[in-house]
Every structure is written in structure tokens, then in C-alpha cells.
Amino acid sequence: MQTTSGTEPSSAVDRHSPVYVAGHRGLVGSAIVRHLESEGFTNILTATRDELDLRNQSDVSAWFDEHRPRYVFLVAGTVGGILANSTRPAEFIYDNMMIHGTVVHSAYETGVEKLLYLGSSCIYPRDATQPITEEQLLTGPLEETNEWYAIAKIAGIKLCQAYRRQYGCNFISAMPTNLYGPGDNFDLTSSHVIPALMRKFHDSRSTTTGEVEVWGTGSAMREFLHVDDLASACLFLLENYSGDSHINVGTGDDLSIKELAETIQSIVHPEAVINWDTSKPDGTPRKLLDISRLRALGWEPSVTLRDGLQSTYEWFLSTESAGEELRGIGSH
Ligand code: GFB
Question: How much is the pTM?
């Protein structure tokens, strides 16, 4: 039974049903798989990019026909930080629009019982009132550095709403704030700020000057959620929410990029020297999510930023020592 308010009581998802995690190799997808496993799920379906091109409707339809998932986490997509978003706009809009379209359509065609689609806080207007409530979607112009990605993400929300309205599909959307954690992308040309700064401060330990280049002015404000908290929120929403509106997922706290850089510096290389590269963009001045709706449903984040940064750096060090050059995280 669906409602538009989404306030119906919890309905535990059967741990033995087939659950498809689209995008299981990414930061979010890998965290969702870990969380589902820890929650006792026994039938988690995944497919690598080589096995299934999610941009291809006939391939995706054939895969859904064969595997028949009962639940879907749609967390696949082409993602990246501020530089990748502004220099690869075609990939960001095409890949994401296609992936959202094929998976949502196949989920509808094969009768998926519930699907959770994951967006991003960049869907909101650049000058949204802070903290940003769900109602502010489509009330003003977007931030230009990530307009293409944001348009695709907004289309994903609308896809879920359209299939719900026309076909009665129980497809819901969650909008997370900026994410980080184990499994993140540490490649400096495409990464987000946390993995980028961890890598830069880490690399500065083996230079004589210890200099680290940090982009922008440092004044931009960002909210960061550990990906394990996001994974927990995604399962929570799958079990406790069936409304039409997307739901914000964050911590309710933010800090400046300057404060973030200094925190990572203190963890990774306290003697490093920060140089600000103001030729690089700050992006959105601030995007703090209002998480009242999620809180009212009964979910709270649990990982503090300091602890999350510390454990993510430990994870980074473990992959460095494992010598995973193939993933672009190689040692120096
Ligand atoms: O994480 P980030 O790339 O994403 O950048 P956005 C956040 C802030 O960190 C910006 C600054 O003000 C950057 O200028 N920054 C400082 C750096 N040094 C660095 C660095 O070395 N690398 C990076 N990447 N940033 C993305 C959107 O925006 O956030 C996406 O482009 C998506 O669409 C994602 O929404 C969550 O928060 O600016």
C-alpha cells in the first residue's frame, strides 16, 4: 500500500529476496552491499560494467527478465567532483539520464516491488535557502559547475514520480549530501574534495616543501556524510518510506573547505603548507540539507566527521600498501 505522505509503518524487507544493487562497485553501491550483508541479506544481485551496460535498454531489460529482482537500489552513474562535472558535461548528462531511464523502466516492466533511486544535493538551486528543504527543488537556477549532472539527477526523481503516478510503482528517491568513505575515488582529476585532499596531504609527506594545493578560496561550505551512514539510511527508507517526494539524507552540519582542509591536514600531515589556488572554482557557496523529514521518520547519522575522516584515511593507507595501482590509487 503506497501513500503520498510516506508515513506508513515499517515493513521489513525479506532478507532472502533478490535485491539488485545497480552500481555495486562505486562508493555508494559497495557500502550498500556491505550493509545488506551485515543485515543478513542472502540474495544480493550485482552486475559489472562488462557484464551489463546500464545505458542500453535492451541489455538491461534482458538482465531484469533473467534475474527478476524484487527490490532495487539504483545507485549507479557517472559521478565526480567539481572539475570532472564541469569538463565532462556530455558524459555526466548522457550516462546518468540513460542509466536512470533503463533501470527504472525495466524495474516497472518486471514488477519490482520497490526501488530506491539516489540523487544528489546539487539538484537544488544554487541560491537555495539554507538549510535546504525538499520543497526547494526547481525553484531557481542551478550551480553552473554541475548543471548537467543535476539535470540528469532531477530527471531521475521525476522518472520515479512519473512511474508511481502512471503505473503505481513504489519507487522512492533519496537525496544525499556530499559523501565520502572507503571505496572513494582518489584520482585527482575526477575525485571529490575529501579523497583529493587526503591524497594531496599524503603525497606532501614525501616532498621537501610539504606544500599542498587546495582549490578555491576555502570559503565554500559543505556538509559531508559517511557512506556507511548513507547505506543505513537507504535501507531504512526502503523499509519505512513510500512517499512521492524525495527525502534529503545528511548530517545537518556543515563546515568550510578551509576547516575541512585543516582537519585533513591534522590527520594526514600536520606540517604541510596549504596554498590556495583561487583560479579554481568554489562551486555552490553552501548546500546544507534540511534533514527534518528523515529525522521525523526515525533515522539519525552515527559517524562523526573526524572519526569518518580518520577511518577513511586508514582505508586509503591500506589500499596504498596493497599497491592497487590499477585503480589509480598507487603508491608514490
Ligand atoms: O567535492 P567537490 O569537487 O564537489 O568540491 P562540489 C567541493 C569544494 O572543495 C569546492 C573545493 O569548493 C572545491 O573547489 N576543493 C578544494 C576541491 N580542493 C579541492 C580538490 O583538490 N579537489 C576537489 N574536487 N575539490 C560536486 C558536484 O560539487 O559535488 C557534483 O560537482 C555532486 O555534481 C557532488 O553534487 C556531490 O560539492 O563542489
Answer: 0.94
